[in-house]
Fold:
Amino acid sequence: MACNICPRNCKIDRTAATGFCGCSSVVRVARAALHFDEEPSISGTHGSGTIFFSGCNLKCIFCQNMVLQNGTLGEVFSVPRLAETMLKLQALGAHNINLVTPTPHRESLTDALKTAKENGLSIPVVYNTNAYETVETIRTYEGLVDIYLPDLKYVDPRLSLQFSRASDYFETAIEAISEMYRQVGPMITDENGIAVKGVRIRHLVLPGCVFDTRNVLNAIRDRFGVDCPISLMSQYTPIPECRLKPLDRPLTQREYESALDHCISLGFTNVFTQDLTSVGRSFTPPFSDHVDL
Structure:
């Protein structure tokens, strides 16, 4: 079957070859474990039950999880094993099931989520995405996903083409996020501050690109209002594979403060921020071909 899951619409028969995302018809998982490096509303005190999938449809040249991009790392998981893993993470006390880079695996994941829920999965499901999604794909998760954590990386098509090979990133992502918002609304938390439902939009401030951060924040305000929950992240970490200026250096304190000042000036009321001590590879967990869980 010709693949049209994501906006690349590469029409590859993934039973015979791999798509732009690097994925075949099988699902590869490079890590499944409790994860404590998300926002406090996601990781909480017990951790987020995170499943990292191999393969990605965006190919960002600065990605901290670059090792996963080509889709070859990780262990093959069947639908029953995916469902079983979700239930094991719940049994370990996870606050949620966190699906990281799930986009290429729509059919397997929707089947696994239905199976897990039929067998007792009761904690929220998080869809953690670069937001380069089709509206049709996001619609298939309605009723299965409780929390959406989309990035909104760029407005400028020159940046999205140069950095992620997707000149249509903004117009595509903003419509996908609008569908997420339609389904679950803005993020809400329980009495302990743990997310139970809704959308929080993430934006990573890139060095030398604060002008585009301002445009991203303007776009969020214009589409979703100042009450939209957002994460304004400072954790950009240069990787050896990326020598392109200005991405070959860390974000400066001045750049992040400039982005934050603009965020405040727009009147956003629900903002998660970071300090520059967040910079470093500590946010990149270990990945392997073998998953213990």
User: Anything to note?
Assistant: The longest strand covers residues 27-35. Residues 100-282 form a domain with the pyruvate-formate lyase- activating enzyme fold (CATH 3.80.30.10).
